[in-house]
Every structure is written in C-alpha cells, then in structure tokens.
Amino acid sequence: MVYPIPVTSLPPLTPPQTQLKHTSILILGAGWTSTFLIPLLEARQISHAATSTTGRPGTLPFKFDPSSPSLEPYHLLPSANTILITFPLKGPYQATHLLSLYRASHPSTVAPNWIQLGSTGIFQIADQELWVTRHSKYDRENARAVAEDELLALGGCVLNLSGLWGGTRQPRDFVKRVATSKEQLKGKTSLHMVHGMDVARAVVALHERFTKGERWVGLCGGDGVLARGWADFLE
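Given the sequence above, the corresponding structure tokens read:
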C-alpha cells in the first residue's frame, strides 16, 4: 500500500536543466487519446504539452511511480491550467500522491484543474438500472473507482469512457473480440463506443468550463438494435 508523502518529508528541489514554463493543457500520457486531442488543440490554438514514459520526440519524459517520493520526474513538467491524466490510477492514495508531488514541485503556481480519463466498466454491476447515467450506482470497490473517487474529493473531475474507437481502433476489430458469429452478437444487449474525436472535444469542453468534483460519462451507442447492427462487421 502506498501512502501519500507529506510535503515536509520531500527532498529539496533540484532545478532541471531546461523546463517549459507554462501551458494551457498538460497531457500526462501521450497515447491514443492524444492523436485526436493534440490536433484539436492546435486547431483551437490552445497551448499544450504531453508526456511519454520514454520522452520520445515531441514529449516530455515522465513516468508515474506511486511508490516513489522523488520530485525529479515532476521538475520537467510545466505549470498548467488543466492537467489530463490518461493512464489509470488504481486504489487509494495514488491520486493524492500524484497531486501532492506535482504541487510540491510547483509551489509558486496556481493549482491546476485535474481531469482523469476512466472507464464505464465501473458501472457494470449486478442489478444495474437500465439507463446508466453519471449518477448511477457503481462498483465503489473497483480499484480504478477508488482512485477516481479520491481525485473527485480533491477537486478533480473524471470522464468515464465507453469502448474507444477511431484511428487504429476500429469497431470491426472490437466486435470480433467479443463475438465470433452473428448469433453470439445477437446475445449482446448493447454495444457502446465513443470516438476519439468526441473524447478530445469533451476534454476541451472541461478545460474551458471545468466542473470541480464531478463525474461525467462519455459514450455513444444504444439498445439491442444497435448491437445487432454491428453484425455487419463480422462479414
């Protein structure tokens, strides 16, 4: 179990050699989502920066380690109005750990708004209501839900997403993983997916009109008729 590191116990700051001062949106984890989000930010002329674990070209090196109290990885991160977490936080204290270390490494800047990308999988529980909304009950013991609830309590915002598609992720490939025949697919009561461009638009909307402590659900899809329609992808 990882406990939050008291700021008083953190090692002294060591200034990095180079550092981007400030950006509007900082993307922690430039993966699939960023392939849609970054072009939108550029089109909207919203300044941004993104990280990757390897620091590949165009990104800043950063890898979240929930067991480390070191501030070194955070020194290269700029201050930002909004910080988007694209990788999953799991279990208690991880959200507190991330926010505490970032804040300790940026003591003189205004606290950013935090957005966590989550999954609608936390809503898959027994006796769930027919129409699931952001106010529906969910598995509060799910490791991702625990971390998300912690972030919400800290004033962050969570965007729970359904099946992601677009670019390298195509519905045909997704459907073939959940069913190998039209008969199997007809047994599925619903199939919900959301396009990467819609995810990007949702992130920008939250950046512009942040909702502190709120959970949102991002999905496109509907009833069994839609699910049966996906059978065309098996042909």
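Residues 196-208 form the longest helix (13 residues). Try to locate this feature in the token string yourself.
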